Amino acid sequence: MTVNTDGPSAQQIAQAVAGGKLSAIDATEAALARIAKCDSVLNSFTDITADRARAKARAVDAAIAAGQKVGPLAGVPFAVKNLFDVKGLATRAGSKINRDLAPSPRDATLIERMEAAGAVLVGALNMGEYAYDFTGENVHDGPSRNPHDPTRMTGGSSGGSGSAVGSALVPIALGSDTNGSIRVPSSFCGVFGLKPTYGRLSRARSFPFVASLDHLGPLARNVGDLALAYDAMQGPDADDAACTTRPVEPVAPLLAKGVDGLRVAVAGGYFQKNVFPEAVEAVARIAKALNATRTVEIPEAARARAAAYVITTTEGASLHLDRLRRRPNDFDPAVRDRLIAGAMVPAPLVDRAQKFRRWYRARVLELFQSVDVIIAPATPCIAPKLGQVTFTLDGVELPVRANIGIHTQPISFIGLPVVAVPVPLEPMPIGVQIIAAPWREDIALRVAHALERMGAAAAPAPRGL
Amino acid sequence: MKVAEKSTDPLDNYIDAVAKALALPVDDAWRPAVRANLEVSLRLARLVDEFPLPDETEPASVYTA
Q1: Which of A212, A337, A352 is opposite residue B30, by nearest beta carbon?
Q2: Which ipTM value was assigned to this complex?
Q3: How far apart are CA A104 and CA A205, in angstroms?
Q4: What is the pTM of this model?
C-alpha cells in the first residue's frame, strides 16, 4: 500500500505560507479544487464555505505581506463535522430536523482557535444522525464513502471527517467522539485520530449528544499535524462546563522524545475477543514495533461497555425527548427507535451505570501505576461494505452496527486519551488504539509519532478515487 | 397502540405505560424495533445492575460546584 503520498501536510503548508513560498489563497484554492473533483464520489462534505475560506486566506496573506506574525497553522485548510457551529450555517448534526434551526451566530470555540492559529475553514462534513452511529451512513445526506474503497463504510459518526482526511481533501478535520466516533472512522479510513482526555478540549457551540461522554478532537494524516491542531485548540473555556481549567500543555515539542522508558502493554481478555484476523494482525504489528510483550487485563471491560451503552441511550433520549414527540417521522427511523427505547430505561439503572463508571475508573487508573500505554484494537474489523448488516466471526453471525464500537466504548467511558493509529494492511487499513492515563495525551502522541517513524503506522494514499 | 391493548406481555405493557406517561408517540410500525432496542438496553443494564457496588459509591456524572 502506498503511503503518505497524497497532499501536502499541514506542517508543510504552514511553513510554506509563513515563509512566503505559497500563498494561503493558493493553498485554499487547491483544497477547494480537490473537494470539487473528488467529493461527488466521497460525499464527505455537506457544506463548502468557499467565500469565507477565500476571505480568511486573503487575510492571512495580507498579514504576511504586512510583516505580521502568523500562527502555526497559517493557510492550512480544514473542515469540521457538521455538529460544530459554523457562523451563518444551521448546525444540522446530521439530521433533517436541525436544518430548521436559525443560522449559528458564532463559530464553535475550536473553529475560532484553529482560525486564530491561521487555519482556513473550507466546509462542514457529513456525519451519522445526531452522532448516534458507527457506520458513517446517513439517510438524509447519503453515506460518506471510504477513500480506499467507496463501496465500504467510512465508519461513524465522524464519517465525513475520516473520508475527507483519508482522501487528503484536507490535511486536518475535526470530529466528535462519544463512544468511538473519531477512532472508528480513523480506523476504517486509515488516518490518525486523537480523542483527548474528557474535558481537555472545549465543546462550546457544538451540538451535543451525551454530555457526560462527549469529546471533540482532530483527525489528520500524520502525528505532527494532529499535535499541531491539538495544541492550537487547547485551553480553558468558560462556555463548556466540563472543560478543564488546566493550563495549555503543548505536545508538538515533545513528539521527538521517543518511547524509551515507557512501559507498554497489550490489552488482553475482552479486547482479544470478537476480533477479525486483521485487527489481531494490526495489534501484533504495533506491539512488536514497541517491544510490548506484557498483557494487562482491563477489569470489567464488558460491563463498562454496557454501562456506556445505557448512559448513551438514556442521555441521548433526554436530549431529544421533545423532538421525538414533535417530529418523530423526521428522524432516521433507526436512530428514533433507539432513542425512544432509551427514554424507557428506568432511572435507577442509569444511576448505577454512572456509579459503576466511578468504580471502573478507579480500577483502570490503578493499572496506569504499572503501565504508561495500553494497546487495543480500534475496531474489530476493516471497513464493512455500505449497507452491510451482519458479519460472521468464528462461525457466529453478529450485527455490524452493535459491534463496531465494542473496543472503543470501554475507553471513552472514563475519558482516557487515545490516539488511533492506522496500520496500512492490504486491502484495507485498520486502526489500533494507543491509550494513556488521563491528561497524558503527550505520551499517546509520542508513541504514535514513534510508530509513524518506524513505518508501523501510516496513513495510506487514497486509492478508491 | 392497538397491539399493546391486546398484549399481555409485560414489556409491551410497560412500553405503552411509559409512552403514555412521557407523551411519546410509538407507532405500531415502530413498536417491534423500539421493543428490540429496549430489550438490548435492559439486557446491558442488567449486566451493570448485577455488579455489586458499595453504598457510598458516587456517580460519575459531571458537576462542579
Answers
A1: A337
A2: 0.93
A3: 9
A4: 0.96
